[in-house]
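Appendix B, record 7
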Amino acid sequence: MINTKKLASALKGVKNLKWLREGEFDYLTADYWGLKIPELKGADIKPLLRKFDTIPQEGETLSTGNPDRKPERMEEDKKFIKSILQIPKETKEIKYTKLLYQVPEEICSIFINDDKKYIFVNKRYTDLVGDYTQNFKILGTTPSNLIYFTDEPELLIICPYIKVKTEKINYLKEANE
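Structure tokens (predicted):
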């Protein structure tokens, strides 16, 4: 299950945020992540209200890039959200290493794919996932492509942190040789 208590932290510093409410779900895309989650309620919705001052109506998309709520832009944003919150067929399961790495101003969770390539993901975003070692299936392709955490019907996608040079990390050296 998505940890909605961490939503405020994940929204910190976000410049581009889109929020679609459709059916029984809320869909969010931000600078480096996106999610599909059962409709937010109560205290869980407060971080979004701080950004938008309102809740989208059924099928409506709110966007920080569309403050005037132009209908044609809302429709474009809706199509974008629906297209990005899909898991491509070529993804494979990746594993959480339980390792962390400090980069300037952030901490990364470290994952590994079948090719023994490390994938670094901002921990502030992986914290959106409850216990991803238990319930969530973790999917990806290469270290520079999106990572998908899925626990049907919930979905979280995150862009990896790609500025890390793994050869400079001693405790990862064995896998790099």
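Remarks on this record: Residues 4-84 form one domain. The chain has a mean pLDDT of 88.
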